[in-house]
Inverse folding.
């Protein structure tokens, strides 16, 4: 019953969760929730299993930012918080906000990252529209 409630809550909030275990031998295990797959527009079977595969889902102009932020969080075991664009399998561009934390999981012998990502596209588009309207007001007032 609690799993069904979690799935429903993630769908309502448009938030997906994920976990990544990066083992010392360079292997990793990845889990994405169904809602995260929905946000990215991919099937569960297409969840990226390594960072390079994940980067292919990140908008080309945002990849360097994601790499720098991710690398810093993993090396320092500090929280990761970032807004960036993704490109869905249908070609649509979405904005996401991700918040996560990294820690050493001694039982797994791995660095574990857990987090959640929210689709913030509607908010970002509204912000852009507001900025454009403000620019128009300034230019017509001048």
């Amino acid at each position: 019953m609690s799993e069904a409630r979690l799935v429903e809550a993630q769908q309502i909030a448009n938030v997906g969760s994920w976990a990544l275990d990066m083992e010392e031998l360079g292997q990793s295990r990845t889990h994405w929730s169904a809602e995260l797959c929905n946000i990215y527009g991919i099937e569960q079977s297409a969840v990226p299993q390594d960072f390079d595969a994940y980067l292919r889902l990140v908008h080309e102009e945002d990849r360097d930012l994601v790499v720098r932020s991710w690398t810093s969080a993993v090396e320092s075991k500090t929280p990761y918080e970032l807004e960036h664009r993704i490109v869905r399998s249908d070609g649509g561009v979405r904005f996401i906000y991700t918040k996560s934390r990294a820690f050493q999981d001694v039982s797994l012998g791995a660095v574990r990252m857990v987090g959640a990502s929210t689709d913030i596209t509607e908010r970002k588009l509204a912000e852009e529209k507001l900025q454009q309207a403000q620019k128009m007001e300034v230019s017509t007032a001048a």
